[in-house]
Amino acid sequence: MHDNDKSPTVADLAYVIAGSEATGGAGLQVDLKTFQELGVYGLGTVTCIVSFDPANGWGHRFFPVPAEVIAAQMEAATAAYELDVVKIGMLGTPATIEVVAEGLRRQPWRHVVLDPVLICKGQEPGAALDTDNALREQVLPLATVVTPNLFEARTLSGMDVIETVDQLIEAAHRIQDLGPRYVVAKGGVDLPGADAVDVLVDGDEVTVLSTPKIGQERVSGAGCTLAAAITAELAKGADVGDAVAHAKSFVTAGIEGRMSGRAPFESVWQGAARV
Ligand SMILES: Nc1ncnc2c1ncn2[C@@H]1O[C@H](COP(=O)(O)OP(=O)(O)O)[C@@H](O)[C@H]1O
Ligand SMILES: Cc1ncc(COP(=O)(O)O)c(C=O)c1O
């Protein structure tokens, strides 16, 4: 034994299954940055790669990862560590949804946090329809916490109009009927009003989280950051109410300190609160 020999660290672990977004503004990159900022050891499985096309109006180029490659990554991650908290981000295709759901069912989870990404910002809503059904049938019943934005809340609840906080709460209750105990429905910039309002619904208990809107534009990575921060806090042992409250503060600080580059959107900077 040398004097400087130390036992290995036993850190809290957070696992994410999500897509890669090549500018670092959303997806797995954001999830791992958030985990790191919040002091948990992060590991991840890539489901698809989104590479915006700067030569064509920054449109989406979407490349799914083959199902067997996703299964292999999940096998490695779950064999290496005893994981009990996982975040699910963009899956993208019914085939991906199937292999991820199958992998999740192989072991028990204390929390499955589902960010039900149906489309990424800028994509055609029509592209969401086939993934919507597969997600609803196969992944939503496994989730303990789900974090729909306004578009996803409309789609999953079947409510065409969500324009008030009461309607957002009603949508969250309807989504709860699809399986998850906790629903965090996000009003974000899209719900009319001066504030970015989210609601957390747990059975009959409703918590409204509200901060003044920062600008009027959607900021890339806001939803990913919120769900990843909830996941990190749950990994550290927080209850869902505390995890969501902490995550809301974390994403607000990241939006305030957002990054701007040559792409036509700004991105959350997870390190904003630290620097
Ligand atoms: N401009 C903004 N100012 C303050 N908070 C915001 C703003 N945009 C989004 N948020 C908050 O960021 C989180 C993610 O919301 P949202 O952007 O709606 O998700 P998504 O990225 O899934 O569309 C929520 O807590 C939402 O209220
Ligand atoms: C891989 C990936 N995951 C998730 C998202 C959704 O990101 P946001 O947090 O901005 O809703 C996107 C959007 O571009 C993405 O490309």
TrEMBL record:
Reaction(s) this enzyme catalyzes, per UniProt: pyridoxal + ATP = pyridoxal 5'-phosphate + ADP + H(+)
Transmembrane residue ranges: none
Pfam families: Phos_pyr_kin
InterPro entries named among the record's database cross-references: HMP/HMP-P_kinase_dom, PM/HMP-P_kinase-1, Ribokinase-like
EC number: 2.7.1.35
Domain of life: Bacteria
Domain Pyridoxamine kinase/Phosphomethylpyrimidine kinase: 23-257
UniProt keyword list: ATP-binding, Kinase, Magnesium, Metal-binding, Nucleotide-binding, Transferase
Annotated GO MF terms: hydroxymethylpyrimidine kinase activity; phosphomethylpyrimidine kinase activity
Entry similarity comment: Belongs to the ThiD family.
Function according to Swiss-Prot or TrEMBL: Catalyzes the phosphorylation of hydroxymethylpyrimidine phosphate (HMP-P) to HMP-PP, and of HMP to HMP-P.
Identification of the protein by name: pyridoxal kinase
Encoding gene per record: thiD
